[in-house]
Structures are given as structure tokens and as C-alpha cells.
Amino acid sequence: MLSERKAISYQTADAGYFDKRSLKKYAGVWSLWALGVGAVISGHYSGWNLGLASGGWGGMFIATILIAIMYLGLTFSIAEMSPALPHTGAAYSFARTAMGRWGGFVTGLCENVEYVLTPAVIVFFIGSYLTGIFETPASFQPVWWIVGYILFVGLNVVGVELSFKVTVVVTLMALAVLVIFWISAIPDVDFAANALDIAPGGGLLEGGNGPFLPFGLTGALTALPFAVWLFLAIEQLPLAAEESVDPKRDMPKGILFGMLTLIVSAFMILFLNPSLPGVGSFALGSSGEPLLEGFSAIYGSGIAKLLAFVAIIGLIASFHTIIFAQGRQIYSLSRAGYFPRALSITHDQRKTPYLAMVVGASVGLAIMLVLFVGLGADAGSAIIGGTLLNMAVFGAMCSYIAQAISFILLRRNHADIARPYRSPFGIPGAVATIVIAAVTLAFQLSDPTYRAGVIGVAIWFAIGIAYFALVGRHRLILSPEEEFAIEQAERAKTGAAPVGDVAI
């Protein structure tokens, strides 16, 4: 083990290094469930609907089924890996043990893109709602974004206990709003007349009763990135491993209960929202506030502003929880030296990675402002929001492929690692995740509207890889993730069996 550590050029940190980077244990199974569901739930309020413009209702339905299958394969794999490797590094930690330093870093970099850009997408839609409520001009939107970041980064810095309590409350409120919408919408549903109101090849079909697949099967595949928005970020739960009271018991339960909740909610919103009179798939395909439009169709536009306040709860739930994940993801890579080490310093009293959250939020906001200036203040939600969404999804798909590969390699090369939970889908589930994620990536690149954003993410990858090659790999620290990976590599080399769980 010592020879490998020397070959990798690790720097040994004293106790003071980790004392400045300690976290506080608090989360139980329902806190974890709320963290996962809360991170995703905004995707049931805004964002998913843009896929209706690409595939029509039938295309979006098929895309949602495929993406649900992908996420089941992914989440069951993560449910196995997270209690076996209970570190804050999550995806980076899995890949580091399975594929070495470069595999760990590239996987962490992909996940970093997802967690920096996903809050940007959500706060963009929050700004869209607030613009409608207060009737502010489009040029005022950056103010809403800045206020949102300051408020919720600040809330996450205050402390993990308050953060999780707020997460549980806003997640339950967000789900309650959706349940109220479902119950209210069911009596007014006219699926054929409204959800099927897109003509073959595009355009509004008056009276509805159009084709199930107005853009053919290709349209369904083009809608895949938007269907991802109904589930994206459920995989963030392992980032809370070192703040979980019992990650080996609670992490699998939190992930799987969360996924079940999201599947039910996704198909309910997909069926009901476009099926309402005065709404329809065609109009929702370019809407920044689809749930608000649904509420307005049911209750009338007279109380639209009140309903907008209600609808914004789901966006707040996701924004708050993904700011949490963003900070922990940057923290873990920084603590191990892959990112600049200063980013992993935690608050003296509150034990939260405040620098990681502030820097991550600043990068996300900067990208939003570049798009806002470059595309113009009057660019529609489908352009600015869709571009940000596709950038986040691109990073996520790369991360999912890497995590599924990590799962396969851990099963094959590290079969003796203690696994408190085993995925019933096994390697075939991970393979399904890889295939569907790869298809989603291919269709993202085929869409000229969002290709520039995806190219921007590729540049982000190139800069990150250059930094690691020139600087980061020479400054690695023996963090818990690195200790675990080195120990497993040495045991695999010598054929020794694991001696038990590694302490965090």
C-alpha cells in the first residue's frame, strides 16, 4: 500500500486539515427521501414540458418510460454502491475505487457540471414565475436569480440541521401542491382533444384528436433530455453519506422510496397537465410555467398570481436541495485535492462547506448571465431555459454512464466488498442505464438549438481535465475516498479479503 501511495504522489495531511473540513451527522431515512425528492420535484413544475415540442404527447410518454427505466437501473446500482462506499464523494468515490484516479476525477467533473447547472435551470424558472407575478420586465430577471442564490446559499450555510428540516417541509409542501393539482384536474380532463393537439410534423391542431406520435419515433428520442428533468438529481443522495446517521441502512431506503414517489408523480403530471382545456401539448411545449397554466385553466386566471405563489414551492424545494448537493460534491473533490483545497473548508461552528457552495453558485450565475446577454433578454423560456437544461442533462448523462460502468467493475473486480444492499437488476440494469444515457447524449448533439450549450460543457470538461493533468493530480490528499480506493486496490492485487468496513 505504501508503494502505491508513493507512486501516486499523495500528500499526507495532518489532523488539523480534516478538522477544518468536518461535517455533522443528522440525516435519517426520511430526511434522505426528502433530499432526493425535493431535488427533483421542480422538474414536475417546469422544464419537462419543453419535450412536448420535440415529440408531442406520445413522444414524451415513450421518452418518460425509457428514462424511468434508465433511472431505475441507475438508482438500484447507487443503492448498492452507496452503503458499500459511504463517502461524501458519491459518484467520484464509486469511480475512484473502480477506475482509478482519472476515472474518479472525470466522473466527478461530469457530476460537477450537473450540480452547478441544475440550480441555474431551476432559478431561471423561479425568475420566470416571479416575472409573471410582479409583472417585471424581462431585463429584470437577473435580479430574481441573484436574490434566489443569495437567499438559499445563505440558508444552506446556516447549518445542516436547519437545511434538512427546511428540505422536509418544502418537499412535503411541493408534493401537496401536486396532489391538489391532480385531484383538481381529473374532472376536467379531455385527453384526446387537448393532449393530442399537435398536427403531424408540428403546428397546432384545432380540436385535437391528432396522432399519438406527431413527430414519429425520432421525436420520442429527441424528447429524452426533457424527460430526464422528471428524475434528474435523485442520484445526489449519496452526497449526504457522511451526514447520514446510518448510511448503510438508510441510504438504500431513501433512494428507492424517492424513486417510487417520483415515478408516480411524473406520470400523473404528464397525463393531466396537457389534458386540460385551454392548455394542451402545443401550448405547454413552449411554456415556462406549465403548472401555473394548468391551475389557471381549472380555477380561472383571476387567481393566477396566487396560484403562481403556490406553484413556486416546488421550484424552491429543488433549488434549496441541489444547492446542498452542489456544495457537498465540490467539497469532496476539493478535500481530496482534485479541486483547489480551499473549497473544502467548512464553517467553524456550523460545519457546512460554505466556500464550495458560494463558488459553485457564482459559476452557475455567471453562465446564466452569459446566456442572458448572448441570447438576449427577450429570448423565450424554451431557448434560455432549454439551453441550460440541456447543458445540465449532458453532464448528468456522462456521469450516469460512468457510475454504471463503476457498478459493473465493482461487481466484477471487487466482489468481496461488504454490500449491505444488492441491486436486484444487477449488471443488466447498469447496462440499460448506459445504453439509454448514450442514446440521450446522441440526440442532444443532434439538436442544433441546444448544441452550442453542449459544446460549452465540453469546453468545461477540457479545462477541468487540463487543470487536473497539470496541477490537481500532483496535490492529492489521502481523504476517506482515496484511502478506501487504495486499500481495495492493494487487496485486489494480493488476493486478500476485505477486513471490514472503512471508517469515515
Structure description:
There is one protein chain. The chain is 69% helix and 0% strand. It has 504 residues and is mainly alpha-helical. The chain has one domain (2-494): Amino acid/polyamine transporter I, CATH 1.20.1740. Helix 5 runs antiparallel to helix 19 (480-494), helix 6 (141-158) crosses helix 14 and helix 13 packs antiparallel against helix 14. Residues 1-7 and 498-504 have low confidence and may be disordered. This is Amino acid permease. Pfam families: AA_permease. It is a multi-pass membrane protein.
How much helix, percentage-wise, in residues?
Answer: 55-70%
Please count the beta strands (DSSP E, at least 2 residues each). Answer: 0
Q: Could you name the CATH homologous superfamily?
A: Amino acid/polyamine transporter I
Q: Tell me the CATH architecture.
A: Up-down Bundle
Number of helical stretches of at least 4 residues: 19
CATH C-level name: Mainly Alpha
Mean pLDDT value:
88
Class by alpha and beta content = mainly alpha
Largest sheet: none
The low-confidence parts are 1-7, 498-504
Give the terminus-to-terminus CA distance.
19 Å
Compute the gyration radius: what is it? 22 Å
Q: How many domains in all? A: 1
CATH fold-level topology = Amino acid/polyamine transporter I
- The topology string of helices and strands comes to HHHHHHHHHHHHHHHHHHH
The share of residues in extended strands comes to under 5%
